[in-house]
């Protein structure tokens, strides 16, 4: 029998089985069937299209020439909205399913959609060490563009599909953030189209109030059309040291100690239980011991979090050299550890060698095809949250995560939080060391109830002067939200720039208690 006939017969059997079980039952209880047969191939086509497009745009140098024209088109749409009487709020026309956030925003159906087709790298300025990009440029696209030139950006948030716009209007973090801060702290200028249709540039010295108010505003002050981001010289490898640590107090002490060392280019922790973790530190280098090079990003390699767990199980330290771009996107193939819940056998060596090159499925496609049953199932029995808390509260925070959620692994990522104006800053007058605690997976706490449990978590985070990343489900009241975030500058600018009739308040856009 020819391969084509074999494939056809196999697909026919699968379709008959789906018809027998019912499509919804298969999508809920055997989602891997749909993901492997349809979403993985479709994700490959998406990637190929965008890579070819980025290559063609750069080779033809069309992006800088077309950028101004595209911005004028956005301005024209805003002026048209004004001429129509400003009857509805505005928002970007990008479909909600295309975003990496798991939140389902229904506001796009009732707001005026402004089409923003800005997805190109505009300029690499080696003298200023700045790259100018459009807001829909992704992290995978940007590192692929800069690395061959010998450059990278100081903070490369983990997943390939995260966009510059999302990381500025929301936030972004990586294991280098203990030196450079959050993604917003590596940006030197923004360009926005405001509610009156005007185009403005802002930086720490030009329209500085707007510059500091834009991060975390979720597109409620204007439309981002370009950003300038610092660059640093790229090196070939990250020399990474793995150290298993046992005992919660020792875990917190070791992680805090390493996070304070500026000689560490990268610091990261994976907590596998309340008393077990692996602390990783990395240093950028151009030299490597050939026998210790681990190209962890290759499709047939074990998922990174599983690879790290081997050091914990063997109770031994280790040193490896990981190619820099592989390191920057080390959690991408397994979407941290979320993919194990979608494709349970995804880390099996046979699957990796045969189909690993197709992994991961696009998060946007997972959202598009999840259906109401899966969405409700995930909402009630699944957690995807990042809480940013002061490093001094780390031990108490992990205990709280364990009591309220009991989700493992937990991701620990340190960052320095400068005392800049805006929605997020330390309580005191000085910069302070914070840590992002990421919880992704199914809570094992027996009494877990999504709304009640997350409200308890949010209350704790507020009590230690921490912050919740706004891509995730937020259950706070308006008063609680503005108790967590400093809205003084944000509200002042919304008043000054006549945003109140043009854009919803950030709370109304992201919180479940207010969302349409």
From TrEMBL:
Any Gene Ontology biological process: cholesterol metabolic process
EC numbers: 1.3.1.72
GO molecular function ontology, one term from the record: Delta24(24-1) sterol reductase activity
Localization: Endoplasmic reticulum membrane; Golgi apparatus membrane
Membrane-traversing stretches: 32-50
Record membrane topology: Single-pass membrane protein
GO CC term (a single one): Golgi membrane
Alphabetical list of PROSITE patterns matching this protein: FAD_PCMH
Function: Catalyzes the reduction of the delta-24 double bond of sterol intermediates during cholesterol biosynthesis. In addition to its cholesterol-synthesizing activity, can protect cells from oxidative stress by reducing caspase 3 activity during apoptosis induced by oxidative stress. Also protects against amyloid-beta peptide-induced apoptosis.
PANTHER family the record matches: 24-DEHYDROCHOLESTEROL REDUCTASE, DELTA(24)-STEROL REDUCTASE
Name of the featured protein: Delta(24)-sterol reductase
Gene assigned in the entry: Dhcr24
């Amino acid at each position: 029998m020819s391969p084509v006939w074999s494939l056809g017969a196999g697909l026919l059997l699968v379709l008959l089985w789906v018809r027998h079980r019912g499509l919804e039952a298969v999508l809920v209880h055997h989602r891997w069937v749909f993901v492997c047969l349809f979403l993985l191939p479709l994700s490959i086509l998406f990637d190929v299209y965008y890579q070819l497009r980025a290559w063609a745009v750069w080779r033809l140098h069309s992006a800088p020439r077309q950028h101004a024209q595209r911005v004028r088109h956005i301005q024209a749409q805003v002026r048209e909205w004004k001429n129509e009487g400003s009857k509805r709020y505005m928002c970007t026309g990008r479909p909600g399913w295309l975003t990496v956030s798991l939140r389902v925003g229904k506001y796009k159906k009732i707001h005026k959609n402004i089409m923003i087709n800005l997805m190109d790298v505009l300029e690499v300025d080696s003298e200023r060490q700045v790259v100018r990009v459009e807001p829909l440029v992704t992290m995978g696209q940007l590192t692929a563009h800069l690395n061959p030139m010998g450059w990278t950006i100081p903070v490369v948030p983990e997943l390939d599909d995260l966009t510059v716009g999302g990381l500025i209007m929301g936030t972004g973090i990586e294991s280098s953030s203990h030196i450079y801060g959050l993604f917003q702290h590596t940006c030197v200028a923004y360009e926005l189209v405001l509610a009156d249709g005007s185009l403005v540039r802002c930086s720490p010295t030009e329209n500085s109030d707007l510059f500091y108010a834009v991060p975390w505003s979720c597109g409620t002050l204007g439309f981002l059309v370009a950003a300038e981001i610092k660059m640093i010289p790229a090196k070939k490898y990250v020399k990474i040291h793995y150290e298993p640590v046992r005992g919660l107090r020792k875990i917190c002490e070791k992680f805090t100690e390493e996070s304070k060392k500026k000689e560490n280019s990268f610091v990261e922790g994976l907590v596998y239980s309340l008393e077990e973790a692996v602390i990783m530190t990395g240093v950028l280098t151009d030299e490597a011991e050939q026998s210790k090079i681990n190209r962890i990003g290759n499709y047939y390699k074990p998922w990174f979090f599983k690879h790290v767990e081997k050091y914990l199980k063997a109770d031994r330290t280790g040193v490896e050299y990981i190619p820099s771009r592989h390191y920057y996107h080390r959690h991408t193939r397994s979407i941290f550890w979320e993919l194990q819940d979608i494709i349970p056998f995804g880390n099996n060596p046979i699957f990796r060698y045969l189909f690993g090159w197709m992994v991961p499925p696009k998060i946007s496609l997972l959202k598009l095809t999840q259906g109401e049953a899966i969405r409700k199932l995930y909402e009630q029995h699944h957690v995807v949250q990042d809480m940013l808390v002061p490093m001094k509260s780390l031990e108490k925070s992990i205990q709280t995560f364990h009591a309220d959620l009991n989700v493992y692994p937990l991701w620990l990522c340190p960052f320095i939080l400068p005392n800049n104006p805006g929605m997020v800053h330390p309580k005191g007058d000085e910069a302070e060391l914070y840590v992002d605690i990421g919880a992704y997976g199914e809570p094992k706490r027996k009494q877990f109830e999504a709304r009640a449990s997350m409200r308890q978590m949010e209350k704790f985070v507020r009590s230690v002067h921490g912050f919740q990343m706004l891509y995730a489900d937020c259950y706070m009241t308006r008063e609680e939200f503005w108790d967590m975030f400093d809205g003084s500058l944000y509200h002042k600018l919304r008043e000054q720039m006549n945003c109140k009739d043009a854009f919803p308040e950030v709370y109304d856009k992201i919180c479940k208690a207010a969302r349409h």
